[in-house]
């Protein structure tokens, strides 16, 4: 994850902007572990959109914490330091509890 943060920045910013434009207030969205999704979260944190965001990435939760209009929900589960996020069966069980308007999945 650390290695990928500084690669293809311009392309990631463009993708993040397009994703941000798709998101509407009062939606529930999922942001997966992804350097591009960190950029989406940065834009959301500066916005006035009222959202519920479920994520399995600690960086995303920390980024969104500055915006009181966003309710952030972390999945928990097994913490993988290499991606600074949660993966595994416990994370999946939490994700299954929600119905999302949009999901942005890392690849």
Walk me through what this model shows.
The chain contains five helices and six strands; from the N terminus they run ααβαβαβββαβ. With 107 residues, the protein is an alpha/beta fold. β1, α3 and β2 form a beta-alpha-beta unit. α2 crosses α3 and α3 runs parallel beside α4. The longest helix is centred in the first third of the chain and has 14 residues, at 9-22.
Q: Unreliable stretches, pLDDT < 50, 5 or more residues? A: none
| Gyration radius from CA atoms, angstroms | 13 Å
**Major sheet: arrangement of strands:** 3-2-1-6
Mean pLDDT: 94
Summarize the structure.
This protein has 107 residues and is α/β, with parallel strands linked by helices.
Question: Topology of this protein?
Answer:
Layout lengths: L1 H4 L3 H14 L4 E5 L3 H12 L4 E5 L2 H7 L5 E5 L3 E3 L4 E3 L1 H7 L6 E3 L3
Parallel strand pairs: 1-2, 1-6, 2-3
Antiparallel strand pairs: 4-5
């Amino acid at each position: 994850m650390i290695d990928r943060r500084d690669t293809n920045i311009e392309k990631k910013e463009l993708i993040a902007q397009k994703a941000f434009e798709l998101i509407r207030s009062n939606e529930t969205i999922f942001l997966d572990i992804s350097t591009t999704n960190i950029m989406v979260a940065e834009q959301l944190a500066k916005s006035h959109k009222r959202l519920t965001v479920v994520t399995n990435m600690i960086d995303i939760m920390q980024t969104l914490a500055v915006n009181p209009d966003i309710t952030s929900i972390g999945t928990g589960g097994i913490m993988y330091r290499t991606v600074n996020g949660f993966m595994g069966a416990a994370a999946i069980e939490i994700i299954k509890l929600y119905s999302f308007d949009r999901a942005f999945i890392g690849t």
